[in-house]
Amino acid sequence: MTSQQQLTVHVKYNDAEYTFSGGVEEVWAALNKFFSEFIPAFQIAKALVLSVDLQRLAEDCKGLIGFADDLPYLLVSKEKLADNDTLALHLLTAHLGFRLGMLKTDVLKREELQAKLGKNPKITSTRLGELVKAEIAEKTSEGGYRITSFGIVQMQREWLPRIKAKLGS
What percentage of the chain reaches a pLDDT higher than 90? Predict the structure, then answer.
């Protein structure tokens, strides 16, 4: 091939697609630039994206939550937990149960959370508001609550170890 001939190279990397056309030297230079600049940038960005390893999450929750008869349960007494810990654990349990195919949704209604917490509606609403403000939970358009991806990561990094240490697990 001589440099006068036209070359077209199509590159697909994850969701990004690029087509380089032109002379051999021109396409070669564009490809080199792509691989030297674009790929590392993607890898850096990927390293910053918060992702959840479902298997590790289930392992981290051992002894704290469980499922029986397709229903989620906290395996620790709510009396030993702060209200926010209890609510966050219930939201995390709903997420995990949904992702594992044991539950139909990862959203819990305020009334369900109030019953699980065992406190009055005002306290439940206040605590849920604190979790939303801290971006641990989000309120859905239907008025329910679910844990956020950030909330799951925070639970794994900080809350679960703190809860286990508090319980002596």
Answer: 64
